[in-house]
Amino acid sequence: MQNDFPALTAERITIYTRYLYEQERAARTIQKYTHDLHALMGWLDGRPLTKEVLQEWKKELTGTHAPASVNATLAAVNGYLDFWQWGSLRLRPLRVQQALFRDENKELTKDEYARLVSAAQQQGAHRLSLVIQTICATGIRVSELKFITVEAVALGRAEVSNKGKRRTIFIPHKLRCLLKDYLQKEKITAGAVFISRNGKPLDRSNVWRDMKALCESAGVEQAKVFPHNLRHLFARTYYTMEKDLSRLADLLGHSSVNTTRIYTAESGLTHARQVEQLGL
Fold first, then answer.
1. Are strands 157-162 and 165-170 parallel, antiparallel or unpaired?
2. Residues in the chain with pLDDT < 70?
3. pLDDT at position 30
4. HEC profile for 84-120?
5. What is the widest separation between alpha-carbon atoms in the chain?
6. 233, 143 in Cβ contact below 8 A?
7. Are 177 and 129 in contact (CB under 8 A)?
8. How far apart are alpha carbons 126 and 139 in whole angstroms?
9. What pLDDT sits at residue 1?
10. Cβ proximity of 235 and 248 under 8 Å
11. Enclosing H/E stretch for 170
12. What SS3 class is residue 162?
C-alpha cells in the first residue's frame, strides 16, 4: 500500500472493497461501507483528505444523523483509512450511552406475534407464517433462514455458519411438524426449506416486505414489524425463563454478552411496574 497524498477515489474504494471481500466480511457490511465512502467522496467534491476536512464532515454528519448512524459511518471511513495506512486521520466515534430500557412502542409482544402468524395463515401465506414462526422459535437471523434445510428439519437441528462462527440451532418439535407438513405439500425434498419461485433461498427484502404487508390486518404497528424484532422476542422470552445470558449469547451467535444484553432489555414500563411492586 502506498503512503502517497491522501485522497478518496472510486478506484481506491474498489480496491478496499475487494479487500473486505477477501476478509469475508458480511455482504451487507461491504455494501454499507461502499455506500458511505462514496457519499463522503461526493461531499469532498475533489478535496483531499485532511484531519480538518474530516472533522468538518463529522460535525455536519452529527447534526443530521443519530449517534449510532454517525458511528457506523465513521467505522466505514476509519476502516478505509487504516487500509491505506492513514491512521493519523482516524476520527473518534461519538460516545453513546447505552439505553437502559427498550421503547415499548417498538417492542413486539407475544400477542402481536401471534396475530401476525394468524394474519399470514388467514391470507393463505403459509410460507410466510412458517418463516415468522421459524425465526421467532429459534432466534436465528433472517439471513440464516437458508440453513433451515430439509435435512435440518429431519434431524431437529441446524448447523448455522455466520460471521466466521458456527453454532447449532435446535428446531422445536411443534415447528418441525409444521415444517414437515409444508415440505410434503410443496414437494421439497432437499436443500433450503424457504425458497423463492426461482428456487433460491428467500432473502431479507422478500421477508421484510411480506411482513410489512401483514400489519394492517394483524392490527400491529408497522414500526414493530421486521424480521429482527422476532429475534429480539425470542431473546427476551428465553431470558425471562432461564436468566442465562451466557447461554443465550451462544444461541444467538453473539461474541459478547454485552450485545446480548441489548436484546434482553425490557421496556421502561416493565421496570416501573417492578419498582411499584417493591412496596417501598
1. antiparallel
2. 1-5, 97-104, 265-272, 274
3. 92
4. CCCHHHCCCCCCCCCCCCECHHHCCCHHHHHHHHHHH
5. 67
6. no
7. no
8. 20
9. 44
10. yes
11. strand 165-170
12. strand
Bridge partner residues of 159 (DSSP): 168
User: What is the reported pTM?
Assistant: 0.68
Contact 104, 267 (CB under 8 A): yes
pLDDT of amino acid 217 = 94
Tell me the Cα Rg of the chain.
22
Report the C-alpha gap between 183 and 187 in whole angstroms. 6
| C-alpha atoms less than 13 angstroms from C-alpha of 20 in its C-beta half-sphere | 21
**Three-class DSSP category at 157:** strand
Whole-Å CA distances, 64 to 52, 54, 61, 190: 19, 16, 5, 48
CB atoms within 10 A of CB 217: 14
Instruction: Tell me the residue type at 162.
Output: N
Percentage above 70 pLDDT, the chain: 91
Give the C-alpha separation, 197 to 220, whole Å.
28
Instruction: Supply the pLDDT for residue 113.
Output: 96
Angle between helix 10-22 and 27-44 (nearest 10): 160
Closest Cα partner for 131 from 194, 189, 186? 194
Q: Locate 147 and state its grid cell.
A: 440453513
